[in-house]
User: Fold these one by one.
Assistant:
Number 1:
Amino acid sequence: MDSTLMTSFIFVEEPVEIMDREVKRLKQSRIPLVKVRRNSKRGPEFTWKREDQFRKKYPHLFARTAST
């Protein structure tokens, strides 16, 4: 297959929406988490991510949830 043709078949699974929030409590610390929905080839997928790291990479998703 031609390499230029192959590049058009790449599917990027970008996060779509923040579904929920949770705080994990450890001995001395608390870790804010967000439940993220992604669209994939197999349908919607959900995963928990650290809020601070996720907010740096995808700040536009937090702008949407700030009003709710």
Note: DSSP finds three helices and three strands in the chain.
Number 2:
Amino acid sequence: MSATLQTLWSAATAAQQAPRLAAAFHPLIAAVSPSISAATAPVVAAPPTAAFSLPPPAAARPAPATTPTTPTNTGLDLPSVLLSTVVFITTVAALVIVFLPERTAEQRSRIRSVALFAAAAALVLTLFTLLTAISLGVAATPDQLHEENTTWISHFAFAIHYHMSADGVTLSLLVLSTLVFTSVFLAAWKRQQRLRLYCGLLLLLETAVNGALCATDLVLFVMFFAMQAAPLFLLIRCFGGAGRERTATRAGVAVLISGALLLTGFLLVVVHSSAHSSDLTDLGNAGALTGPVAAAGFWLVFTAFAIGFVIVPVHTWMLDTTATASSGVAAVVAGVLVRLSGYGMIRFALGLFPAQAQRFGSALMVLAVLSALWGVLLTLAQTTLRRMVAAVSIGQMSLVLLAVAAPNSISLDGAVLQLVAGGLSSALLLLLCGAIEGRTRSAPLDRLGGLAAQAPRLGGFWIFACLAALGAPLLAGFSAELMLFSGVFSVHPYATVFVMASTAVSTAALIWSAQRVFLGPVREEFARVRDTTALELGYLWPLVIFLVAFGLLAGRVVPVIGTGLVRIAASLGGTQ
């Protein structure tokens, strides 16, 4: 009898609790599988009113555990603020440094540590993201790579977005930027005077560069791009050599003019587009512009990037800047800032005006040939190592411009890889120039010689950097130049051969400079020159390693770069 009553009581309890449990678990079921939720949504009726109230059970039996099903994500599963962290971690470090004293050696060491930590953290995050993209390979389409997008200003004639994205092109150049800045901070480890100002300005300059690389909204890009002007001006003005006032003004004005031309060209596109947005993705979906407006916009944007890209005849500011600025700042200018303009030319000039780029391809080809020829003449005429390296950079940029003149998927992949390889080799060469000048007191080429006897490792680094700039096999430049030649030769065969030959002659002059600087009889004034120190090895070796890595792993890196160029190549009708 007691067993029967117990059974009836349990059944009544279950009947009373079942509707409540079903209502409670329905949201969980809906979250796990909407289709199951729609098919099994319970119709919960009010529980019947019992004539008597049941006492609570002695012990509630726990519900059986369920394992929720998590959707599988095949893309880059990264934090939503990763790109913002990479961009603004250096800004935070600059703000921290402002409040740090620099009177004692310990205080200056703290400033160096904060700056180096921020730059290295940005490098680690970027490198991790690139390695993740490489592991995914071509399976990671541009839409699956990391992105941050939110509407910033909507109550305007067009919407402005805080849109940061990273595809293979962006990630490759972010690795270049963060690596060069990290090496420059290491190179400045022994700096004593105005260290706080120097590190703070470099950190802000890195924020501007990385922000411009990640920005997908046109207005946001212009803001970051123009942000370079102030720190670059102050770095040259406060820490440059003879003639720094005039050089700083020219460099700052060049950046501001580029920014003004960019803003004008971008606004022309946005106002005449049906997208009513300054976001590059929205503008691409709305379709490319045509007619005189598109032609005017193309030349405005192209000229803006040509100034920073040191294309003849708007290249003169870069030679003086490289020669006058400190070796670290010169490495940033030639290794990063110039490459940023090359990135902008591919991303925005080709991305927004594909038809105009093809229409004016012959004119761009002529500019590439002129730049290559002028680069050779400048290289042979220089009497200092720094100016020679800057002249070689002009020749390297003519290769990228040649790819823009004959754009297709192969040439553009090679152009992006050339931007990375050329940036690494230029930064390495200019940091080596600083090491040589520190030992020889900035002596001109005709007063140097015999340094290999006292500094053989320094000479080895210089020869390696020259070979990297030349594009020797197994290094990053070799794969880049091979792809450029393959992609452009069928369109402009004579121009391709001429530009390639000119670049080889310019770089051969650099190798010839190694004989003048390191070989020959030992000069008495350099008899006590030391070889590379542990600190110098610390900031030179990473650049060497990445030049080799990008060369050996080009087969893995190029497909990732190609994912960022799919839309541009498709709009150009390039082969995939």
Note: The first strand starts at residue 147 and ends at 153.
Number 3:
Amino acid sequence: MTDVRTPSLGLLADPDYRRLFASTSVSQFGFQITQLALPLVAIMALAASPFQVGLLTALSTASFLLLGLPAGAWVDRWRRRTVLIVGDLGRAVVLITVPVAWWAGVLTMSQLYVVAFLLGTFTVFFDVAYQSYLPHLVGRPNLVEGNSKLESVRALAQLGGPALAGQLIRWLTAPVALLLDAVAMAASAIFVARIRKPEPKPAPRPDAHLLREIGEGLRFVLGHRLLRPIAATTGTANLFGAAAMAVTLLFLERELGLNAGTIGLVITVASGGGLLGAIYARRLAGRFGQGPTIWAAIAFTAPFQLLMPLVAAPGWRLWVAAAGGFVASFGVVVYNVTQVSFRQSITPDALLGRMNATIRFLVWGTLPIGGLLGGVLGELLGIRGALLAATVASCFAFLPAFCSPLRGMRRLPEPDDPVTVDAVS
């Protein structure tokens, strides 16, 4: 990547990075619409039960468990930019089917289940290719800056997206709002298609074997003394986060009686800390060290999530709980920026797809399990009890990272340091 940066713009001075940044911007705002609209279609239009909403949540991420590992091996054989374009266009086509079926009066939970699964399938390939493409586009020395800027736009989408999505759902209905996400995904594909930097075709490997390549990715991650605890911490957080998410919208809509607009505003406030997290992640890692920042970002912020299930009725306590979510989302983004940049920096380019896919398999593979867990807990403990149980459990997600060499490691090792070489040999 030619360094055309200026001090004020950094990587944004590079046209290709700007195109990726624009793609991320529109797709992330569209994603926020779907995150709110798809379950609300089930809840409001089809009167879904807690278990049905949990199953919908599980199916939206089931592909990470079922296809995550082979996706990494396949992505390492393909040009990653092509995978990004196909992933965006595929999601756009799938999303369009919901408003069409709704207008025709034939929308069912079965269709929503299929839509959720297909969206997740395209997302598996897109996400693995996305994290593997960035090092090629910006160069490894610029990864923290590149990830921070992209995480900033995701955080901004989380800040404004739910409120916008809530109002769109009120004005247009949830099925029609999904049509706007389809347009956003198509626009994202156009931006990626306009990136000019040549991407070399992956070198052919005559001896390539899918199972062998999957095994290489698993051995690299599970045999690494730093990647292993990061995967365990992230997977645990995602497990109980998905359980909480499966019942959160039910809690806000049925327990507290909020409309779609207010639900979107609550989620906006709770997600707002992510923008600050993206801004401050780099300086926090520099001030306290990358290792301590990784575990502390979760340990000191996750308990603030406990405020939400304690809210009994709409009022000031609801907004205090939303502010607690603000703190928690700050910690999540600081954690993500720090650990994702580290993973990318220590992994050989030929293994990037498999490393990212293995991590995704391990940490996103817990999401469908968590979604089902939330639905089952909702049936057994009630919606409020399920939300409380999930948030309490998430407070302990930091322990694998805390009980590893990361705890006091101010500088993460280079790939040729003994801690890395020994771990992956």
Note: Residues 1-5, 416-425 have pLDDT under 50 and may be disordered.
Number 4:
Amino acid sequence: SPPTTTTIFIPAAPETDVPPPNASGEILPGRPPLADSSGREAVPSALADRSWPGFAALIPPEAIRSGGPPPDGIPAVDEPVFAPVAGVDFLAESEAVLALEVNGDARAYPLQIMTWHELVNDTVGGVPVTVSYCPLCNSAVAYDRNAAGRVLDFGTSGMLYQSSMVMYDRQTQSLWTHFDGLAVIGELIGTQLDFWPMAIVSWAAWRDAHPEGMVLTTETGYSRSYGRNPYVGYETSERLLTPAFQSADIDERLPAKERVVGIRGGGDAVAVRHAHLQAAGVVEVELAGAPLVVWNLPGASSAIDAAALADGIDVGSSGVFERALDGRLLSFARAGDGFSDDQTGSTWNVFGEAVAGELAGSRLRPREFVDTFWFAWGTFEPTSRVVPPLG
């Protein structure tokens, strides 16, 4: 049966000891906004007039609300500077990073930077990508920037849809929903970005598995309180931190801000309840007929909880992979600081790599997933199944 929804009032956020980025709506010091990029195409802009006269839309335009900052008020990182693992000394063991690997190029994007910038336009493994993180819906997604016959650059629009970031591309100034990488208003309406699998994991886990990897540094061109949380208490508050967005249709199957691991593909979607996953360590699901393993390893702190990111509650590091490997179907259990398969007893790390045993050197195929809050997953995947099934 279809999920039940209700319209609720969401109070303004409580005060925090570190103000949210650009809470006043002003652009903070740094490079100027890039809305008038030299790559701008001569097409109507969906960014310039928020009433969108004459534009078709894939979502209700009235549901797109200002989050406070203007376009690029939360500035994307367009010239990312990276350092080798051995040269990084600004991250605590439990701090969360976004883990992305493209064509053997492994990179980590610390959430202590992403909470202040939300977008990084990068090239990884020779592929133009945008790495995105929305603190309000607690979701991280990586996209291929090759779309509609050009390479796109993305910036923050200053707008939200159902408390989730709305991006814009600088070439056509179309608006895109961050959560699903879809152009919803503007010249590129209907264009869907391709995803790259990306996970939120602890710095310690990523560092140990990628000694030759590269890490985004705080040399962003902006002055920010990196390491401090601009959303103190948001993780454990029942409220949605969007003063300009006072109501939302919430899927009532789960509490709005319950964490889930959301997996989608092949016309199917499933949400694994995070508390269940943390307790079990390993959960097996099927997505469009494909057998998958979902797992979680303790040791990663929430970036939207305590004043210092390293002090956030332990939400662990999650991963989603195909269970099939070289013609056999593997089953897994959590074992110590990793996982083991029932068939060979080989040891696996959180990145789906066998590090010891008969299958050492093997890698499971990663699947795109989102660690997120239920209200966001329920908005974009309203027909999603929930695991474990609800009574």
Note: Residues 1-36, 243-247 have pLDDT under 50 and may be disordered.
